[in-house]
């Protein structure tokens, strides 16, 4: 049994009048519909595992999911996980369903490179969306790791080969304290991302 993938970006494509150049205008509605689909899956899907994706826009989450996770027996929610409240609600509902929860966080090796990829995507969002999702997803990850140490979180670093193919490498840690310290070191504010990409571009 392959995974059931729930994706707001996929849902957008079926909304009346959708235009990828105006994707941000459809984001709120598609995100709400994705949450409804997750609730339905938690009720009806027999898979006992739920995977929450995490990571800012254009980090490589979807490609990782489709190449590395799609054959898992799981419900996979393709999300940036960039707000603490959204994560709290999802975790609460998943735990209530009795399923096992895992988080896969895709972290780009270079935020400037990810920003260039973001600018060249067909789905257009404001630059602020990039800054918020990358800063927010890292903050949410740290919050989950501190407050829910029983939830497995897998860190995947995305990068590009010389011939422009995306590759992924799992970052491993000896213990939870080391993991927490890593998450603390990658925290970044929206303003810091703005400064970084401005210097590099």
Could you please describe the fold and organization of this structure?
The chain has 201 residues and is of the alpha/beta class. The protein has a six-stranded mixed β-sheet, with helices on both faces. The protein is built from eight helices and six strands. It is 48% helix and 18% strand. It has a single domain, classed as Rossmann fold.
Element layout with pairings:
Elements: E1 4-7, H1 8-12, H2 27-44, E2 49-54, H3 61-69, E3 75-78, H4 84-97, E4 100-108, H5 111-119, H6 127-147, E5 153-160, E6 166-171, H7 176-185, H8 190-200
Parallel strand pairs: 1-3, 2-3, 2-4, 4-5
Antiparallel strand pairs: 5-6
N-to-C series of helices and strands? EHHEHEHEHHEEHH
How many independent structural domains?
Answer: 1
The biggest beta sheet reads: 6 strands, mixed
CATH class, named Alpha Beta
The proportion of strand residues reads 15-25%
If you compute it from the alpha carbons, what radius of gyration comes out, rounded to the nearest whole angstrom? 16 Å
Strand runs, count: 6
What are the main properties of this structure?
201 residues, alpha/beta, Rossmann fold, six-stranded mixed beta sheet, globular
Put the structure in a nutshell.
The chain is an alpha/beta fold. Helices cover about 50% and strands about 20% of the residues.
């Amino acid at each position: 049994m392959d995974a059931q993938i729930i994706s707001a970006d996929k849902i957008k494509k079926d909304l009346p009048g959708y235009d990828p150049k105006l994707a941000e205008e459809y984001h709120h509605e598609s995100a709400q519909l994705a949450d409804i689909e997750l609730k339905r899956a938690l009720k009806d899907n027999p898979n006992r595992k739920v995977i929450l994706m995490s990571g800012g826009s254009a980090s490589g989450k979807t490609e990782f999911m489709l190449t590395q996770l799609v054959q898992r027996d799981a419900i996979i929610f393709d999300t940036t996980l960039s707000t603490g409240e959204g994560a709290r609600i999802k975790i609460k509902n998943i735990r209530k369903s009795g399923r096992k929860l895992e988080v896969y966080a895709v972290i780009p090796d270079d935020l400037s490179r990810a920003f260039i990829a973001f600018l060249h995507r067909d789905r257009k969002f404001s630059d602020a969306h990039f800054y918020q999702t990358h800063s927010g997803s890292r903050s949410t990850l740290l919050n989950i790791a501190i407050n829910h140490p029983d939830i497995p979180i897998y860190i995947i670093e995305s990068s590009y080969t010389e011939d422009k193919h995306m590759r992924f490498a799992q970052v491993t840690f000896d213990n939870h304290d080391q993991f927490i310290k890593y998450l603390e070191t990658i925290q970044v504010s929206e303003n810091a991302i703005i400064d970084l990409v401005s210097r590099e571009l």
